[in-house]
Specification:
Number of helices: 6
Strand order of the largest sheet: 1-3-5-7-6
Strand content: 25-35%
Shape: elongated
Largest sheet: 5 strands, mixed, barrel
Distance between the termini: 52 Å
Number of strands: 7
Radius of gyration: 22 Å
């Protein structure tokens, strides 16, 4: 047991597991759960500080701080990634996007992962997937200009959301611009 004034050992281990647990709970139950968990943590920390003579426990205080910080980090990261995507849900927009990975071909359907450069002329950085029935002539880091209709990616939610891909788009007419100066990462993608 810790005595008054001692520091808990392996604080970063507790923080890492706490952050992972809060992120899993937030993805499972939504960001509202993470906000509630953060609020409970703040109340518990306040109680620890106010009534420290009768209620002080350094282990519980450390765990409360970890879960509070973890829930704030998780909620803010989900919020700042999800809100721009919700604004595009079931809407069409003119985009310029860059292919960021090799296409995946499963059961005759080609899945391409893009990162937006502009949406309706405004700079935005969102990832999305597009499905085509046949392969198209594009390689990583090439750019595509198109009118796209976006939808929130609900089917592959946890897997894709972990990669920051929260949108899917349908594209009918597009124009591909080949990029000559590609970064070094392109060579790695070519080898895969």
């Amino acid at each position: 047991a810790l005595k008054r004034g001692e520091i808990m050992r392996r604080v970063m281990t507790v923080f890492g597991f706490g952050l992972m647990l809060v992120c899993v709970l937030a993805l499972t139950f939504g960001t509202n759960f993470s906000i509630i968990l953060g609020f409970i943590g703040v109340v518990f920390i306040a109680l620890q500080i106010i009534i420290k003579k009768h209620f002080f426990n350094p282990h519980l205080l450390c765990i409360a701080v970890v879960f509070t910080v973890a829930s704030i980090i998780c909620t803010s990261s989900l919020y700042f990634q999800l809100e721009p995507c919700k604004q595009l849900d079931n809407k069409s927009a003119g985009i310029t996007a860059q292919l960021i990975d090799n296409p995946e071909i499963r059961d005759g359907i080609c899945e391409y992962t893009f990162k937006t450069l502009t949406i309706n002329g405004n700079k935005k950085n969102l990832k999305f997937t597009v499905y085509f029935s046949e392969p198209i002539d594009i390689s990583p880091y090439d750019e595509m200009s198109a009118d796209a209709h976006f939808q929130l990616n609900e089917s592959g939610k946890h897997y894709d959301w972990a990669d920051g891909i929260m949108l899917r788009a349908s594209v009918h007419e597009y124009e591909i611009t080949k990029v000559a100066d590609k970064p070094f990462h392109y060579q790695i993608l070519r080898l895969r």
